[in-house]
Amino acid sequence: MIHIAQAIIVEGKYDKIKLSSILDAVILVTNGFRIFHDPEKMALIRYYAKTTGVIILTDSDTAGFKIRNYLKGAIHDGTISHVYIPDIYGKERRKEKPSAEGKLGVEGIDKKRLLDAFAKAGVLTDEIPEKTDPLTRYDLYELGLSGSADSKSRRKALQKKLGLPDLLSAASLLEVLNTMMTKQELSQLLETI
User: Fold this and answer.
1) Residues of the chain with CATH 3.40.1360.10
2) Which of 1, 21, 25, 132 gets the highest tally of CB atoms within 10 A of its CB?
């Protein structure tokens, strides 16, 4: 598995599934044009831009470039890298007909071309072993961050301490925490709050 330190932004869940099969990275989904009206997701993207940097990987059609340009204008601080997939005409296997412009999206591009696109963009990659002990929902429960009367306030205090967006759901927080720390480090941090 190839490790990418930056968070990768893609348009849809099938793009995320495709990338997750070949890359070890935080992958954020814009849900297409919904990103234009999703302040929580934009706050998370801005957080990653400032901390790890973000890589924007959208389809090479008009909609993909509209989303890419929106993100580029909406992220004011931090690092943005752009990975572009080639224009390849065809249709994804799961679809009955090609897209309006007839181009394959991220989900339809083969592994080699995707990795070539990352290499061309100069995104640094390295091989790493898979994380053997990621944080789980149960860990959040054990640490009092979910499932109890004061868990929401504890999550908010943790998010404030870490400089994370206030609107993160417990599931989004779990994803972010897995990129930042181990269970032991989280437990020690919670003792200070």
Assistant:
1) 2-127
2) 25
Q: Cβ contacts of residue 34 below 8 Å, gap of 6+?
A: none
Taking only the tens place, the pLDDT of each residue in 96-125 is: 888 888 899 999 999 999 998 888 787 755
What average pLDDT does range 35-62 have in this prediction? 95
Which sign, positive or negative, has the C-alpha torsion 92, 54, 181, 160? negative
Q: What string of H, E and C letters represents the secondary structure of 22-43? A: CEECCEEECCHHHHHHCHHHHH
Calpha distance 28→9 (Å, rounded): 5
Whole-angstrom distance, CA of residue 181 vs CA of residue 124: 21
3-state per-residue secondary structure call for the chain? CEEECCEEEECCHHHHHHHHCCEECCEEECCHHHHHHCHHHHHHHHHHHHHCCEEECCCCCHHHHHHHHHHHHHCCCCCEEECCCCCCECCCCCCCCCCCCCECCHHHCCHHHHHHHHHHCCCCEEECCCCCCCCCHHHHHHCCCCCCCCHHHHHHHHHHHHCCCCCCCHHHHHHHHHHHCCHHHHHHHHHCC
Residue 127 pLDDT: 45
The fold of 2-127 is Dna Topoisomerase Vi A Subunit; Chain: A, domain 2 (3.40.1360)
